[in-house]
């Protein structure tokens, strides 16, 4: 049986600068709805560790998606979906 190499070896990658982007973090930042609407790029980290502190610090802003109830965080796909939906909704 052949071991999987993962998508990192098949998906083209490009250089990315977090300048002017929004870091989505699990806790400790203003709610997503309070973001400057001109910021339209989101940076998301891994589901377990999140973003490295140096990436968060390099971004123009950081935001948190408020959660209700006992949930502590969202998976990265759901967080990205909510961020994009909210941005699109606020820009008509």
List the helices and strands and how they pair.
Layout lengths: L21 E3 L17 E2 L9 H6 L2 E3 L12 H15 L2
Parallel strand pairs: 1-2, 1-3
Account of the 3D structure:
- With 92 residues, the protein is of the alpha/beta class.
- The protein has two helices and three strands; from the N terminus they run E-E-H-E-H.
State the major sheet.
3 strands, parallel
Gross geometry: globular
Intertermini distance: 50 Å
Portion in strands: 5-15%
Give the tally of β-strands: 3
Strand arrangement across the biggest beta sheet: 2-1-3
- Report helical residue fraction: 10-25%
Radius of gyration in whole Å, from Cα?
Answer: 15 Å
Annotation field: number of helices: 2
The secondary-structure element order is EEHEH
Low-pLDDT stretches are none
Structural class: alpha/beta
Mean pLDDT: 84
């Amino acid at each position: 049986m052949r071991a999987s190499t993962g998508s990192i070896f098949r998906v083209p990658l490009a250089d990315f600068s977090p300048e002017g982007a929004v870091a989505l973090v699990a806790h400790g930042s203003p709610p997503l709805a309070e973001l400057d609407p001109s910021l339209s790029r989101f940076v998301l980290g891994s589901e377990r560790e999140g973003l490295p502190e140096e990436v968060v610090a390099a971004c123009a802003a950081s935001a948190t998606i408020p959660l209700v109830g006992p949930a502590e965080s969202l998976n990265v796909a759901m967080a990205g979906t909510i961020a994009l939906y909210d941005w699109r909704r606020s820009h008509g």
